User: What shape does this take?
Amino acid sequence: MRIVADLHIHSKYSRATSPDMDLASLFEWAKYKGIDVLGTGDFTHPQWFSEMKSKLKPSETSPGLYEYGSGGAKFLLSSEISSIYSQGGKCRRIHNIVFAPSLEVVAQIIDELTRKGANLKADGRPIVGLHAPEIVELVMGISRDCEVVPAHAWTPHFSVFGSESGFDSVEECFGDTAKYIHALETGLSSDPPMNWRLSALDKYTLISNSDCHSAAKIGREANVFELPPEKVSYFEIIDAIRKKDKKRFKMTYEFFPEEGKYHVDGHRNCNVRMTPEEAMKHKNICPVCRKPLTIGVLHRVAELADRPEGFVPENSIPFEHLVPLREIIAKVMGKGEATKGVAEEYFKIIKAFGNEFNALHAERSELVKNANEKIADAIARVNAGRIKVIPGYDGEYGIVDVTGEEYEKMKGREEKVNAQRNQKKLGDF
Assistant: This one.
């Protein structure tokens, strides 16, 4: 049985999230997307935990998973915790995802975090002063069935390998508790091939999740498992991740990493975007404001890599790059993703194919029967890898060209800006 799982999201109780991040909307959007198991996100928040206790029921067929309604996605208890602390003369900001097997275990995690002074009411993703190893010790001390996974492992400001506040290895970050770390979340700005460049990461399973803040964004990254129907459970999913079992953990669906908000180096306010090579020529200093650039994921991977680009480890789990369907439709129609016209086209396609993942993997001949021909062409272009991306930087999403027309326009505008900047003769470094 094929299981698509998005295990890291946020609720309406996290900062900068949509009010539609409630159980009803998430359950509905999981159907549209084709998601079978969805993380709850934010289980440490008192109000969200209360809602989960009142509205979720333990699955009778899938131990450790919870049900909101019949015939739809099951929920896996998850939360993200932000640790901010000082170590090695540097401020560390590390985000970790925690998975738990039951609401009873979650209640104990909440009690222990509260006892240690965490203000869990302030945000769905709480900020705590606990070091990363302390989080692992706390969680695993309550239940060895829990799992801790470093979130979006390469994001500059809040991750285990982040250029601004991270470490150079999992062991440096987690110390003796590194033995409990079995997986890393790639994040939107990196994909498996980038992580494969570090031999030290071969032993870890690479998982991918949406980390989304609105219901329509769930599934933009996801994990695909193959499990017998009678074995679909929290414990089977976690075990497949822990053991990096390619028979059960089949693949991940990935953003094109260039589309992520921190793929290359730059300064958003200065409209400066640079490749790692360009940034190094400028000594990682912004040519406009003369302050340090935000070093992106591509640069950071290159700093730590001990393998060339293109290396594929023997035990690697396959992956596939996708572009979300609403984004494709919006690009083709030249409208915003939230507009009525895009929504109408989206749901027309969903009705024809059952869910988004089915539509994204459909043959062009089937797509043209149920969708605008240009949309069918764009989906085919994505599936063939015939797209171009203006990479994201310093918190700005990259721009994917699925039509074959947008990239050259965007590149031309960027080159014009660069030419104007060079005319100002800001000087060399």
In short: The chain is about 35% helix and 15% strand. Residues 324-383 form one domain. Residues 425-429 have pLDDT under 50 and may be disordered. Residues 406-423 form the longest helix (18 residues).
